[in-house]
Design goal:
The structure holds two protein chains of two kinds. By secondary structure, chain A is an all-alpha fold. Helix content of chain A is 87%, strand content 0%. The longest helix of chain A has 39 residues, at 161-199. Classes of the chains: A mainly alpha, B alpha/beta. Chains A and B meet through α7 and α8 of A and β5 of B.
């Protein structure tokens, strides 16, 4: 491997190890049940994994986050595209989007839990409504900034609508779709945890609330670190490769 | 036989008033513009910037459909094969050289090998899988020339196709394009500011000026020798045109 290519990766690992080292050293000096050491946290991860509950809760939270993510991405992309294409629609709905961007997530989930009850539909609806405005803004911007000269090629060579989407529109929207997807993933999983904590009886967020009640810092960190690791794996092994594939021509 | 007939073509743009940018004003780019182009004729349109030459090509290509007047192209719909060499190469950066050429095979049941064959003809057989970002300016123009001829067009529109290229490269591409025009027996319209280029390509040069665009002067060209940009014959015709009417310099 090229020396220059491996350097960033080396520094990332050194940075990660330094956090663990500082944490370990601090846990020696601040020996307290409310400050768990990395070893205790690792033990707890193993304990909850072996009981199966950590995997179950992770899968439940991932299912909620995944469902919300796909609904928000699909609806947000369609609405964002339409707003960019039809000015009158944009004039009408622009203030809705601004309100949507500024409504606190917590307000939405409380309202939905009151209106729809403490159930999956309420949670997913609240998450989707939180995420949609961000996708709309990104895709609207992407659609507006599309290079119109490429559509002249489509006209001259009489491309079908399907070909126009596949060869001209989507490649220009990929960077915006990927930005929405990556920022969306990082936003959604965090708000799903908060919403679970507020009104659901399962999932990582619910378990964090239980550990909070018992001041069980070690299990709290075990759950958090495990779930964060899963999200990082999704980011590194699914999102980044998809983004690289979609925009590989830019880096050549 | 008349191949392209343009009758009473009028085109208006709504533009900001230069004296008061808050206000919009109508600009008549073309008013009752008439032009007939014979089968296999190559016509060069020469005139100052901004008078509507490129707009005319956009209308002929079908990209701009908001105009008044009649355009008749003397081909049945099945046979009409139009192509365009754009001022900017207009290659899709996310498609390879091959894919950029192949996009023009859309209207035809052309063998996909046609794209490979034409790329070979313009000397790019070693770069078929290269993306436009990895090609030099000259190579990109070659791909756009290959794209313009892959569908064996009847009508070719060229909008300053060799502008901003270094002289030797521009000359090489001009010669290559002329050879492809002759080989494919194409009716062509070339928009250019370069009078020598117009002499090199055209059977007839049309000098346009004024707003709205009107034909100022027409000149038939019959070259005895094969067209070379700086040949004595072309220089002679150039000097003859300029000396016969110095106002042409303004039109140019």
């Amino acid at each position: 491997m090229n020396k220059n290519n491996s350097l960033p990766s080396l520094f990332r690992w050194l940075s990660f190890l330094s956090i663990i080292l500082i944490w370990t050293l601090l846990s020696f000096f601040v020996e307290h049940r409310l400050f768990a050491s990395p070893l205790n946290v690792l033990n707890d991860i193993w304990y909850h994994l072996s009981k199966g509950e950590l995997i179950d809760d992770t899968l439940i939270t991932l299912a909620r986050a995944g469902t919300s993510f796909f609904i928000a991405m699909i609806l947000g992309s369609i609405i964002g595209y339409l707003l960019a294409r039809f000015k009158k629609l944009d004039y009408f709905f622009d203030s809705w989007v601004i309100v949507g961007l500024n409504i606190p997530a917590i307000v939405l989930v409380i309202l939905f839990y009151i209106w729809l009850g403490l159930n999956e539909i309420a949670l997913i609806s609240a998450v989707v409504l939180n995420k949609i405005p961000i996708v709309i803004v990104n895709i609207r911007e992407g659609t507006r900034s599309m290079d119109k000269s490429y559509f002249q090629i489509a006209k001259v060579y009489q491309l079908s609508n399907f070909q126009i989407w596949r060869k001209i529109i989507l490649p220009q929207l990929y960077p915006y779709l990927m930005t929405s997807a990556r920022t969306g993933l990082s936003l959604i999983w965090k708000i799903v945890l908060v919403f679970e904590l507020l009104g659901r009886g399962s999932g990582i967020g619910f378990q964090l609330q239980v550990f909070f009640s018992f001041f069980d810092i070690s299990s709290l960190l075990a759950y958090s670190i495990f779930f964060m690791s899963v999200i990082l794996l999704i980011e590194n092994y699914i999102m980044i490769p998809i983004e690289k594939k979609a925009t590989h021509w830019r880096k050549l | 036989m008349i191949d392209i007939s343009i009758t009473n073509l009028s085109k208006t743009f709504l533009l900001p008033d230069p004296t008061n940018k808050e206000k919009l004003q109508y600009l008549n780019v073309m008013k009752d513009f008439n032009l007939n182009i014979q089968n296999n004729e190559v016509v060069a349109l020469v005139g100052p910037s901004g008078i509507g030459k490129s707009t005319l090509l956009n209308i002929l290509s079908g990209y701009d459909s908001k105009y008044e007047g009649t355009i008749n192209i003397n081909r049945s719909i099945e046979n009409k094969k139009l192509s365009f060499i754009f001022q900017a190469h207009n290659l899709l950066p996310w498609l390879t050289a091959y894919e950029n050429v192949e996009i023009a095979c859309n209207t035809e049941s052309l063998d996909k090998n046609s794209a490979l064959q034409i790329l070979k003809e313009v000397g790019l057989d070693d770069f078929i899988n290269s993306y436009p970002n990895n090609l030099s300016g000259g190579m990109k123009r070659r791909v756009s020339i290959a794209r313009a001829f892959v569908n064996k067009p009847n009508i070719l529109l060229m909008d300053e196709p060799f502008v901003s290229l270094e002289k030797p490269l521009a000359n090489q591409l001009r010669e290559q394009t002329i050879s492809l025009i002759n080989k494919n027996k194409v009716t062509a319209i070339l928009v250019t500011h370069d009078l020598k280029e117009a002499i090199m390509f055209a059977n007839r040069i049309i000098f346009c000026n004024d707003n709205p665009m009107r034909i100022y002067l027409e000149r038939e060209i019959r070259l005895k020798d094969s067209p070379l940009y700086d040949s004595d014959e072309i220089n002679e015709i150039y000097n003859d045109i300029i000396s016969s009417d110095p106002a042409i310099l303004k039109a140019k």
